[in-house]
Amino acid sequence: MKKISVIISSIKQAIDIKDIVDAYLLPIKDLSINYSNTFSISEIKEVQKLGKEVYVFINKNIHNGEVDVLENTLKEIEKLNINGIIFYDIAIVELKKELNLKTDLVWHQEHLTTNYEAANYWYDKGVKYTYLSSELTKREIEEIKEKAKCQTFVNVFGYIPMFTSRRHLVTNYIETFDLNEKGNKIYKEGKYYNINDSKNGTTVYSDYILNIKEDIDADYLVFNSNMIEEEKIKEVLKDYKNNNLKKETGFLYQETIYKVK
Amino acid sequence: MKKPELLSPAGDLERLKIALLYGADAVYIGGHFNLRANTPNFTIEDIKNGVDYAHKLNKKVYVTVNIAMHNKEYEKIRPYLEELKKINVDAIIISDPAIIKIAKEIGLTIHLSTQGSTLNKKATKFWEEEGVSRIVLARECTKDDIKDIKESNNIELEVFIHGAMCASYSGRCVLSNFLTNRDSNRGGCSQICRWDFDLYDENKKIQGEKPFTFCTKDLSLAKYIPDLVNLNVDSLKIEGRMRSVYYIATVVKTYRKMIDEYCNDEKNYEYNKEYEKVLDEVANRDSIPQFFDGNFGKEVQYYNGRTETTNQDFIGLVLSYDKNNKLAKVEQRNHFKIGDYVEIFGPKTSTKFKIEEIYDEDMNKIDVVRHPKQIVYLKVQEEVDENYMIKCIDKH
């Protein structure tokens, strides 16, 4: 049975969709990136009380000066007894080993989680889940499910982060040309892309909301509410296969190329 | 004091030889499964020739196998790695952990690519314990980060010192996939970060003097060579497998001189501004230290409406030299003519002169060399050698 998991934007939203979801995914304050809303340890505890599975994103690149903060955060999370930490930086695997942490891990190097053998590599290192790249085809996702030992998470709904920088690209532009506006969208060739400068850097998102309405072979189907109205998400979750929004399958049937000559 | 390795890119066998000749201790190259899928790249035979050539000079060749593999690439990787082992490459540079198990079974030395975005001592420790020999650190590392990572681990560290930068954390950009359907993490990057975009605040267009872009200036740590040596960094890496022989020769030779001058006489070393000028002359964009000095504010951006400098100073490559007639056989790379004032330089020496005699292949006197790759003979009084470069200083 596939589990409905939601990257939530508020505790209010978590309560509101409680009867529909199996798992909440929460970006943690200070150590996550790509999400507008993040959660403190006490807020994570609040969401835990709803009695569903809880996974926490620690998905930013961890700079050397942040190792102590990371270590302390991992110790705090360990006390919560959540279902898993969705990680990008390999420091988290090392610290799990060093601190003998019991909390499970979800390998989520975003665009690099692209084959079953890499998923198996991490599984053998004690990583129980892989959160697959959004740039895979349906066949690739099925093959990973078939050949990987881990359980899988797959994005099926929401904006997809497609660029993450340490630099503050919008702020740098505004400051360079002494402008007063903020800047939250970029435009190219008929398409608008959301762009967000935060303390941890800049993220650019897909121009469309991914909206896969068909069966996907994964253990966790991920609905990402970032930058989407809570009512809209709730409507989708009620019956995602028949939701009224435009179907958008991303790379599911569109294999990327890399050699053009 | 340990002298760090100077590591150069090489896009083909010609550039591999030039890089090693001009002072690199090692080169990194791409065959299959690397992040420059749209360059000619090396065949197994080319790699073998390159490795043999390098090993005769007691130098090294590392092969990039650094794509994020999809299932189908994984299923083809083992035979390729076995070939690389057979021809005795010094290491492979990987980012996909699926390769680690195979590489260990085969006995290949593993370097972890900058695609892994290793920024901290704990991730470094993990890879060290996994049997990785060297980490190519993320370009977002500061000097203090590098110091602490080095002091906390026993693994070799490789640091980028020169060349173009990704605007994103390496591996965290798929703009190319979304905007051009080319997979950036499998070698298809179409450099969307260099494109111009319109920036909006909700529905209002924001217009600076130049268009909005993600584009950053290039990296140069020329000023920080003493710091890098003192940090015990093992390898200093130049970016640019797609750059020309002239670029490779110039940049490698310049860093070779800086490293040697500092390591040979630390007390009397002074940063030579002339070297910076030489590096600037072959650059497409302005260069700065980027994250190394902890500064990544607005000055890192490169707003120039997509115009980049193209270098036309490189006018020819010496193929051979006839001592008796003092004639250099030259392959043309850019237009030149009688009266142009030029510099001809090799790995150790250089000489400047005005071009007074040019002959075509039939030894007819000519005044101008217009055609790309045209073979001509130049009168050069001082002895030069194969693979010397000719640079135009002043057009007549």
Describe the structure.
The complex is a heterodimer of chains A (261) and B (396). Helix content of chain A is 28%, strand content 24%. Chain A has 261 residues and is α/β, with parallel strands linked by helices. Chain A folds into 2 domains: 188 residues, Aldolase class I (TIM Barrel, Alpha-Beta Barrel); 45 residues, no CATH class. In chain A, helix 5 links the parallel strand 5 and strand 6. Chain B folds into 2 domains: 296 residues, TIM Barrel (Alpha-Beta Barrel), CATH 3.20.20.70; 81 residues, Elongation Factor Tu (Ef-tu), domain 3 (Beta Barrel). Chain B has 10 helices and 23 strands. In chain B, the strands form 4 sheets. An 8-stranded parallel β-barrel of chain B has the order 1-2-3-4-5-6-7-12, surrounded by 5 helices. Chain B is globular and about 65 Å long. The model of chain B has no long low-confidence stretch (mean pLDDT 95). The chains are: A alpha/beta (261), B alpha/beta (396). The interface between A and B is large, with 75 and 76 residues.
**In the CATH hierarchy, what is the architecture of the largest domain in chain B at level 2?**
Alpha-Beta Barrel
Quantity of strands of chain B, as a count = 23
Task: Characterize the biggest β-sheet of chain A.
Answer: 8 strands, parallel, barrel
CATH architecture of the largest domain in chain A: Alpha-Beta Barrel
Which structural class do you get from the secondary structure elements of chain B?
alpha/beta
Rg value of chain B: 22 Å
Structural category of chain A is alpha/beta
Number of strands of chain A: 13
Globally, the shape of chain A reads: globular
Separation of the first and last Cα atoms of chain B? 47 Å
Assembly of the depicted chains: heterodimer
Low-confidence runs of chain B (pLDDT<50, min 5 residues)?
none
| CATH fold-level assignment of the largest domain in chain B | TIM Barrel
* Beta strand % of chain B: 15-25%
* Straight-line distance between termini of chain A: 44 Å
Measured by residues with Cβ under 8 Å of the partner chain's Cβ, the largest interface is: A-B, 75 and 76 residues
Helix amount of chain B, in percent? 25-40%
